[in-house]
Amino acid sequence: MSAPPAEFLITGQAALANPSPPPLLTQADSRDKWRKKMDFLLSVIGFAVDLGNVWRFPYICYQNGGGAFLIPYILMAVFGGVPLFYMELALGQFHRVGAIPIWKHICPIFKGIGFAICIIGLYVSFYYNTIIAWALYYFYSSFTHTLPWTSCDNPWNTPNCTSYFGKSNVTWTNHSKSPAEEFYVRKVLELQNSQGLSNVGGIRWQLLLCLFLIFTIVYFSLWKGVKTSGKVVWVTATLPYAVLLILLIRGATLPGAWRGIVFYLRPNWEKLTSTVWVDAAAQIFFSLGPGFGVLLALSSYNPFHNNCYRDAIITSVVNCLTSFLSGFVIFTVLGYMAEMRDVEVEDVARDKGPSLLFITYPEAIANMVGSTFFAIIFFLMMITLGLDSTFGGLEAMITAIMDEYPHLLAKQRELFVLGLITTCFLGSVATLTSGGSYIVKLLEEFGAGCSILAVVFLESIAVSWFYGIQQFCNDVKAMLGFAPGIYWQVCWAAVSPAFLAFIIASSLLDQPPLTLFDYQYPDWSILVGYLIGASSFICIPVYMVYKLVWTPGSLKQRLAVCLRPERRAQEQPMEPGLTPPAP
């Protein structure tokens, strides 16, 4: 009998479990790697912990029963969010490629998922960086002895402007507008110069300059790959925690802070309805961020035997705890505002999304001792939180496209990144107009809404049911030395897909009218939004048809070829003296 081939010796038991084609050498050996393990962890944490942790979690929590909301939130994290998070880290680390070419190793007919992810990432870049530009504008405006949103004596203020802090004879009515709200709406956005989406007005050159500076920082952080971005995240991923701690201590010392904390955490068991479970599932999914291709891209630069299981647990726990901590930071200040207005906390906690960060919190900061200092560090925190997520989102697109076309782009990374950044900048110009916030809201709602949920649903189905749970577990065992337990297998095969289907169905069935401030979005804009959402998802069926048409043979033979991995990723030999990490 002749000696077994070398490939068989490398794959070991994994090859016995699934007689798929032997692994082929890939570009993995020459692939960039993280300079330090901490660079990777901070990059993943920085991507997962974004502006949504600060504005969305506290709002969703108090809206859905306060402390009672933590029950569905934790259950959805344990059985839905964290398993998907772990799956993507493991897939990226094993196959060592981005979101587009990875499907050659898993299930080629689903390759359209990779293209859909890139289009969604592009839409997100069109509006997300504009929000960071708003924060940069506030950051610049904070370098003054008296913050410009403190009083009603500015040229942009209206007769409805009401400053009540420190004034006992001022009555707050339904028509009252705080100085912070008018600064945001009439000075930063200049919404008064727009008639809605039908006439968005001219470009705000101050915001254009802010956005240009943001993209310049992003370019020089990404142009050389993970070796440069890994250094930058040591600042951008750690600074927010120092600022959150400072703001928490300051907030806890404010009058009425206890009212906000009680309102935040008091359980309201009557609100534990089906809607709460939908909100909990959506919150944990969008917070951890599987499906955007970022986890695939970042983990693809890891050593083959890196313990991605431990990484998934650490980073997801840090993300959830950060959301919980942010709630205290926000609600101590909301309690303070309620105390100053002499109203209930519920009456000042109505704002969500950017309004919470650009109106409610700055209003409270403006009336604190040391307001300038707290405003500067608060908006610096917002900028760094946003930059981390932008790094991850753009790196996902860069890695996916460069790995798909290495013969064209392998030695042209700097030029390719410049071209991508320029495209994102030009695509964002419409959001810098006087009515740009209307476009931001539309893109936020439809650019990465149900489409990204559907993408991750199909991704989990493709990996669990077509590639196969057993094969995937063999891949994980080849990297870590131990196979995932029955809990992970059940979550990947059944619970996580059901979790995603649940969110998708609920999102489609519950479509409230889209509004921003007093503006009601017209019907035609909602249709445009649906087209934006469909434009990314349509890549998946289009590629399926393309793959089936161009594959030779009968329909049965074509399906067999399109569903079978074209080639396996190389299972890297272990470095001398090293053993796979223990569970």
UniProtKB/TrEMBL annotation:
Record's signal peptide: none
Membrane topology: Multi-pass membrane protein
Listed transmembrane segments: 40-58, 70-91, 112-140, 203-220, 232-249, 280-301, 313-338, 364-387, 415-440, 446-467, 479-504, 524-546
One example GO MF annotation: serotonin:sodium:chloride symporter activity
Keyword Metal-binding set for record: yes
Disulfide bridge positions per record: C152-C161
Keywords: Disulfide bond, Membrane, Metal-binding, Sodium, Symport, Transmembrane, Transmembrane helix, Transport
List of residues binding Na(+) 2: V49
Keyword Cell membrane on entry: no
Record-listed Na(+) 1 binding positions: G46, A48, N53, S287, N319, L385, D388, S389
Subcellular location: Membrane
Alphabetical GO biological process terms: amino acid transport
Main location per the UniProt record: membrane
A GO cellular component annotation in the UniProt record: neuron projection
UniProt family annotation: Belongs to the sodium:neurotransmitter symporter (SNF) (TC 2.A.22) family.
Name the UniProt record assigns to this protein: Transporter
UniProt source species: Podarcis muralis (Wall lizard)
